[in-house]
Amino acid sequence: MKHQATINGCCEACGASPIACLCDVVPRIELKTKICLVIHHRELSRRSNTGLLATRALVNSEVRVRGERREALDLKDLLTRQYRSFLFYPSADAVELDQALVMQDARPIQLLVPDGTWRQARKIHSRHPELTDLPRVRISTPNNSIFQLRAQSKPERMATLQAIAHGLGIIEGDSVRAQLMKLYQAKIERTLKGRGILTRDWVLR
């Protein structure tokens, strides 16, 4: 998978800068659950992006890019009966993603995950009428990370990879969550060391 981010001095495989390359720690995780990352085109060149990193680890995932052309991105083809589809976004009408919800239907789940700034992600509701009737889900897991790649204005807000890790932890189990959170911690550690914020011998816990 190639995006603009791969030609701006970043690793073609993981999208990180050479000093923060993550190719040696990206797992290969095969799941029944599908992740579809609906990413704003401006995120493709941001080294702090973690959503694309999640899709590189998850075999059953895909990326749809929005906002890069005048014509609207149509997501109707994603809404098939093969999956129970949810929009993974903490809107006012979102319900908690928990085991009770997961167990309501035997079909695998597809999470459509908006990726961008909070302002960009919020617009998915108005820019994609095909998602109007799609149920919204959220997680209430607090963000306890000491270090962040971007400032978060509210304690429940977290990076896309963090949110996906906790969401898949509920659907698929703690092992999947742990693998993705390990990748996220590596992303933070190597990025902040590259910025000179962490020393070379500092390992995040």
Kindly describe this structure.
- The structure is a single chain.
- The protein is an alpha/beta fold.
- The chain has helices spanning 51-57, 99-102, 118-122, 124-127, 160-172, 174-194; strands spanning 34-40, 61-66, 84-88, 95-96, 109-115, 136-138.
- The chain has one domain (27-194): Alpha/beta knot.
- The chain has a six-stranded parallel sheet.
- The longest helix is centred in the C-terminal third of the chain and has 21 residues, at 174-194.
- The protein is globular, with a radius of gyration of 17 Å.
- The protein starts with 33 loop residues before the first strand and ends in an 11-residue tail after the last helix.
Instruction: Summarize the biggest pleated sheet.
Output: 6 strands, parallel
- How many individual domains? 1
Strands, count: 6
Question: Which class do the helix and strand fractions yield?
Answer: alpha/beta
Using the CA coordinates, give the radius of gyration: 17 Å
Helix-strand string: EHEEEHEHHEHH
Q: What is the terminal-to-terminal distance?
A: 31 Å
- State the helicity in percent bands: 25-40%
Question: Which properties best describe this structure?
Answer:
205 residues, alpha/beta, Alpha/beta knot, 6-stranded parallel sheet, 6 helices, 26% helix, globular, disordered N terminus
Can I get a quick summary?
This protein has one domain: 3-Layer(aba) Sandwich (Alpha/beta knot), CATH 3.40.1280.
